[in-house]
Automatic annotation (TrEMBL):
One cellular component term from this protein's GO annotations in UniProt: plasma membrane
GO terms under biological process: cobalamin biosynthetic process
Lineage: Bacteria, Bacillati, Actinomycetota, Actinomycetes, Pseudonocardiales
Protein name, as recorded: Adenosylcobinamide-GDP ribazoletransferase
EC number: 2.7.8.26
Ranges in a coiled coil: none
Cell compartments where the protein resides: Cell membrane
Amino acid sequence: MTVLDGLRLAVSWLSVLPVPAQRVDDPTCRQAISFAPLVGALVGAFGAAALWALTALGAPPLLAGLLTVGVLVLVTRGMHVDGLADTVDGLGCYGPPERALTVMRDGGAGPFAVVALILVLGVQAASLAELVHAPLTLVLACAVGRAGFVLCCRTGVPAARPEGMGALVAGSQPTWLVTAWWLALLAVAGVGFGWQAALAVVLAAALLLAFTWHTRRRFGGITGDVLGAASELATTTVLATTAVLATPIA
């Protein structure tokens, strides 16, 4: 196994880009999680290009933001928003962890999922409407979102099921790597985007720590759906925070 094997699998796994994965075994899958923030930056670059192009063509800001969110969903095969929907339905149901996990596996979208998708995607679109003149913020936001994978898979966080993606990658990311990624993103945010973006990264990290604590208490650990939900929540936090703080107060 080489570093490139993990990177190829990460790109193939987390995007629609036609990059063939030459190895798909347990160690390579765990290594792929380590590269998730890089793939997030790549996905964000596609979104930023779409936002810039739509704005240049004269699209109204909210329309440009909404269409850019659609681009992000297409580039990721809708995996992360699907994970968000399933996780929210699981968190919203009654009963023991086994029932919650069954609800998540069901595949249908309940009322909690529908409301969550409307809110999260709506907030993303509205935030991008305020950030049309700073499209590269989307690169940072998507990188932070995928850094959520690394944070959720940190050492000590178990899988909720004995099978599936969560069982494969839970607890696989050492503390030093998690810390390195988030400090690097914090530095990039502060130097390249300003204190508002740096604060957004800190808020995203805090939210994900609370989120993984809650999912561990409710489900017994993480699943692949939890990772998708974490990505969307962190991305939305960065976009919303930077949009709000960048908007002048009347």
